[in-house]
Amino acid sequence: MTQTKLAHVPYKGMGQAVQDLMGGQVNVMFGPPPVLLPHVKSGKLKALAVASRERSPLYPDIPTAAEAGVAGFDAGAWYGLLAPAATPREVIAKISAESARALQKPEIVQALAGIGATPIGSRPDEFARHLQADIAKWDDLLKKAGVGQK
User: Fold this and answer.
1) Nearest to 9, CA basis, from 142, 129, 21
2) Are 89 and 108 a contacting pair, CB within 8 Å?
3) In whole angstroms, what is the distance from residue 122 CA to residue 19 CA?
4) Whether 116 contacts 58, CB under 8 Å
5) CA–CA distance, 111 with 18 (Å, rounded to integer)
6) Model pTM above 0.85
7) Residue 52 C-beta-side C-alpha neighbours within 13 Å
8) Where are the alpha helices (DSSP H) in the chain?
9) Domain-by-domain residue ranges, the chain?
10) 84 vs 89, 97, 121, 126, CA distance in Å?
11) In 3D, which of 86, 94, 101, 92 has the Cα closest to residue 125?
12) Longest pairwise C-alpha distance within the chain
């Protein structure tokens, strides 16, 4: 979106990636809030922005990427439940209803908040639309960036 060129440096885990960031071997990284927050709070790392549309409840003082100047940026992580395509609709409906009920339990909401996640819950048709839109967004961005093209 910004035409910024970055070199991807693969790591087997976040521990070494964070050490290399703090040691200056890499200049910037995208990482999960629970791993990085202690280093931000200690002053060893500076958080530039969160990648989601909304500020994180774990650190509300850190702007979103859009607030930091990259309008329309949203690379927040999400999780969803998927099942084989042949799964009967009644089974999907039951799984969806029970999952939505579980996501409303205070202990679940609190546990997810502790890792910077906010439960949303949605109907299967809503999630299908979200998934299709997300795939299209990233497909378009990767094509524009020339990723995977020969």
Assistant:
1) 21
2) no
3) 38
4) yes
5) 24
6) no
7) 17
8) 14-23, 33-42, 89-102, 106-113, 124-145
9) 1-76, 78-150
10) 11, 18, 19, 17
11) 92
12) 53
Question: Quick one: pLDDT band at residue 2, thresholds 50, 70, 90?
Answer: confident
Do 52 and 64 contact (CB within 8 A), yes or no?
yes
Write out pLDDT tens, residues 32-58.
Answer: 888 888 899 899 999 999 988 888 877
Within 4-123, where are the H helices? 14-23, 33-42, 89-102, 106-113
Question: What are the structure tokens assigned to 25, written together?
Answer: 């071997």
Using an 8 Å Cβ cutoff, are 9 and 26 in contact?
yes
User: Which superfamily does 1-76 belong to?
Assistant: Periplasmic binding protein-like II (3.40.190.10)
Q: What is the dihedral of CA 33, 102, 79, 116, to 10 degrees?
A: -10
